[in-house]
C-alpha cells in the first residue's frame, strides 16, 4: 500500500468508542450502507453527511474503545474514510479495522499540526504531509499490507487461495 491519497481532515478527540462510531440502535439495519448515515451521530450528527471519499480522521488516544462490534470499522470504511490517524487504538478495533481493509496509522505528532478542514496527503507506510510539514509514520508489516491492499481479510484469503 505505497499509494498516496489526499483528503480533508476531520478532528476527533480521545476515547472515541464504538457506541459513538455507530450507536447500538442502528445495528438493527440489515446492511452497513444503511448504518453509515448515522456514523458518529451521538458526537456530531452532521459528520457522516459531510465526509467525502479519501477524507482522514485524526484523533487522540484509545480510538475504537468499547465493544468489539465489527460494524464500527465497517461503517467508517463505508463513509469513505481513507485512514484514521490516532495516538492509539483499542486493540480489538485495530484488528477489526485491518480485517475490513481500513487503514489505521498510529502516530502522536499529527494531532499537533492539523486542524479540522486541512488537506492531508497520506502515503501509507511512509509519511503524511500537512500544512507544509512531512511527518514520518511507521511502516506496516507485509501481512497487514496484503490484507489492506486486498480490501480486507476475507478478500485477501480468497486471493491467496486462488478463489478470486
Can you give a write-up of this model?
- There is one protein chain.
- This protein has 164 residues and is of the alpha/beta class.
- It has a single domain (4-138), classed as Aconitase, domain 4 (Alpha-Beta Barrel), CATH 3.20.19.
- It has helices spanning 18-21, 32-35, 47-50, 71-78, 91-99, 142-150, 153-160; strands at 4-11, 56-59, 83-86, 103-106, 119-123, 127-130, 133-136.
- The longest helix has 9 residues, at 91-99.
- It is globular.
- The mean pLDDT is 95.
Search tags:
alpha/beta, single chain, about 160 residues, 7 helices, globular, 7-stranded mixed β-sheet, about 30% helix, Aconitase, domain 4
N-to-C series of helices and strands = EHHHEHEHEEEEHH
| Radius of gyration, taken over Cα atoms and rounded to an integer in Å | 15 Å
Just name the CATH architecture. Alpha-Beta Barrel
Could you give the distance between the termini?
20 Å
CA-based shape? globular
- Helix percentage: 25-40%
At CATH level 3, the topology is Aconitase, domain 4
Indicate the multimeric state: single chain
Mean pLDDT across all amino acids: 95
* Helix segment tally: 7
Kindly provide the name of the CATH class. Answer: Alpha Beta
According to CATH, the homologous superfamily is: Aconitase, domain 4
What structural category do the secondary elements indicate?
A: alpha/beta
Bin the strand percentage.
Answer: 15-25%
Point out poorly predicted stretches: none
Across the major sheet, the strand order is 4-3-2-1-5-6-7
Main sheet specs:
7 strands, mixed
Number of strands: 7
How many domains, as an integer? Answer: 1
Amino acid at each position: 500500500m505505497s499509494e498516496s491519497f489526499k483528503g480533508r481532515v476531520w478532528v476527533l478527540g480521545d476515547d472515541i468508542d464504538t457506541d459513538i462510531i455507530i450507536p447500538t440502535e442502528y445495528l438493527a439495519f440489515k446492511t452497513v450502507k444503511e448504518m453509515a448515515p448515522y456514523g458518529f451521530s451521538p458526537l456530531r450528527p452532521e459528520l457522516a453527511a459531510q465526509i467525502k471519499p479519501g477524507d482522514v480522521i485524526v484523533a487522540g488516544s484509545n480510538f475504537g474503545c468499547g465493544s468489539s462490534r465489527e460494524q464500527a470499522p465497517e461503517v467508517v470504511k463505508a463513509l469513505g474514510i481513507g485512514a484514521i490517524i490516532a495516538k492509539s487504538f483499542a486493540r480489538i478495533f485495530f484488528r477489526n479495522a485491518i480485517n475490513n481493509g481500513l487503514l489505521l496509522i498510529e502516530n502522536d505528532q499529527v494531532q499537533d499540526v492539523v486542524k479540522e478542514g486541512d488537506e492531508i496527503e497520506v502515503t501509507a507506510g511512509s509519511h503524511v504531509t500537512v500544512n507544509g510539514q512531512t511527518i514520518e509514520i511507521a511502516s506496516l508489516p507485509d501481512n497487514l499490507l496484503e490484507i489492506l491492499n486486498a480490501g480486507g481479510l476475507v478478500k485477501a484469503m480468497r486471493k491467496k487461495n486462488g478463489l478470486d
